[in-house]
Amino acid sequence: MTSYLCPGNSSYSTKFCWIHTYFGQLQKAVLSFYSTRPRKRCNVKLSFLLRTTYSASDVLTHVTSDVLNEATSEWSRNMGNCLKSDLSCINDLEEQLHDLFNEVNIMIKSGKRNDAVDLLQANYEAIKEQIDCGFRGIEEAAVLDIIALGHMALGDLNTVGSILHLLSGIVEDLNDDVPLLDSILMHMGSIYDKLGKFEMSLSSYRRALAITERRYGETNFFIIVPLLGMAKALGSVGRARKAIETYHRAISILESSQGTESEELVVPLFALGNLLLEERRAADAETAFQRNYG
């Protein structure tokens, strides 16, 4: 069954991003949502997400090349027109990609890893065909992003590396004002960190931070995610002083926006404390840790 954009009846869409936080060797991924403005219906077809209704075994019906190419031309043309008017089509793209990632997670948790791999691979082959035909926009980047996150959930780091290479080539050519780019860059920063490519992680987080700062301001709560990612990357490449400054900045923003007793402070305070210990600043580290236990 062909999947369409704008399939639901809800008047609001959700924007999502993966927030990767760290304590010691622990990495925890938290999916966060926030509502966006009401959306209009649109007629854009997401031709590469061709899924059957989810069941235990039926995971995806692959489209033929002729159908894909025909649908791609119409979809890309309509998407371009939609982006010029409002973000409704982008919001619906997010919703479908979020559903795809949830479907992959369900398969993994229920022990159907092969089904999850098949679903991701079929979508990769379809979107790769679009890219080979010359389509290299935010839509292609967003799909590759979700496919990469799916392979991360599977622990398939080798496949993730090749997907990330293709994704980075597309992202490099996109303007910073393109919707979704900040979230994609944050995901890339987290994946690069997991792969041990800390300089590339830093570069991704730095660009994501610049985008969010321009959009929300330099003291807004929404810049915390790229700020913490950048701080961790700075520490990983040996720039401890700058990393400590960045953690302090994040803590200051959280205190101003969420209050000094906010649970949101736990992650940056522990990360700061651990980094200070590595720098043999035990007294300063103790101060950071005590704030969490105080």
From TrEMBL:
<feature type="repeat" description="TPR">
    <location>
        <begin position="182"/>
        <end position="215"/>
    </location>
</feature>
<dbReference type="Pfam" id="PF13424">
    <property type="entry name" value="TPR_12"/>
</dbReference>
<dbReference type="GO" id="GO:0009507">
    <property type="term" value="C:chloroplast"/>
</dbReference>
<keyword id="KW-0802">TPR repeat</keyword>
<keyword id="KW-0677">Repeat</keyword>
<dbReference type="InterPro" id="IPR011990">
    <property type="entry name" value="TPR-like_helical_dom_sf"/>
</dbReference>
<dbReference type="GO" id="GO:0009658">
    <property type="term" value="P:chloroplast organization"/>
</dbReference>
<protein>
    <submittedName>
        <fullName>Uncharacterized protein</fullName>
    </submittedName>
</protein>
<dbReference type="InterPro" id="IPR019734">
    <property type="entry name" value="TPR_rpt"/>
</dbReference>
